[in-house]
Specification:
Number of helices: 13
Helix content: 25-40%
Largest sheet: 7 strands, mixed
Order of helices and strands: HHEHEHHHHHHHEEHHEHEE
Radius of gyration: 21 Å
Structural class: alpha/beta
Strand content: 5-15%
Length: 357
Amino acid sequence: MEQLTISSVAESSNINRIHSYPLLRYMGSKYKLIPWIHETLDELEFNSAFDAFSGSGVVSYLLKSMNKKVYSNDFLNFSSVISKAVIENKSDKLDKNDLSKLLDLTVDSDDFIQKTFDKVFFTKDDLAFLDKVSHNILSLSSKNKQALAYTALFRSCLKKQPRGVFTISGNLDKYNDGRRDLKLSLREHFLEQAKIYNNVVFDNHHENLTFNMDVFDFSQKNFKPDLVYMDPPYVPPSDDNCYIKRYHFLEGLSKYWNGEEIMENTKVKKIKKKFTPFSYRRTALNAFDQMFDKFCDSTLVLSYSSNAYPDLETLVSIMKNHKDNIEVKTKPHKYHFGNHPTVSRSNVDEYLIIGQD
């Protein structure tokens, strides 16, 4: 029997970490596809990887668990904060003193959330808690701890909000099915989530980095990852696929709405939508071509779905303009998030389109 090396044992231990990664109820999350993605990526040779659209952070966390140097990016600030907390962060955790500071509700803080979202989301006590904790987060000793506290707060809000989206407000009694998540206060949720996220922080002995940028703004001079994993927003066949529409509250919370334009005429106080060319038919094809060209020196791995535009044949054709060898992995998958069980489009084929020289 081949003797296990220290490095192989460590790698196995790190991979097992992925099972503890908190599930965020996040549109398009690849959480349930992680074993398949891991199997596919494990066949490729690379030491560094760029997760260009990190979203919930689960694929970045997989890459970190595979002992790769990870560059994690998302154009939404709250997603980049999540990655800073669990990808870039090596060792900072929220200790008892931090939690005591965070939970000090006697501080003199702004009441912006209470005033803006009264009778929109959460109870008055929960809104006051968010104002106080948002104020207290800034007093933590490191940016990593601040990101960790925000991340615990994000998941608390998602678990407390019915359906995990911020498109519904007012009287939500019809969504109250007695679940524990709906009964807990945000303070109770936050304490649980702080412990959960503390437990997923680890050091893979690389200087992993997190970005909050448009994917086209990266400079290639000092940024040449071996592999680029791309999971851009999908262009749906008909319905809206807007992340800001569903998660505007978390995006605003991540920066206490500084620099954000609130659309006062909307019931849920949305913020102005951020443009991405991947979300529109008129711009998507050119966006894919430009992205593949931008990272053509790296192995390309595109994650996409059969229920989105463009189709597989078109995507392969575009990637062939930049890569000689194309391989397609396919896996049947059923999405449950945001879909009624009878909607046929929830049954899809997921693709991993791999381009190599």
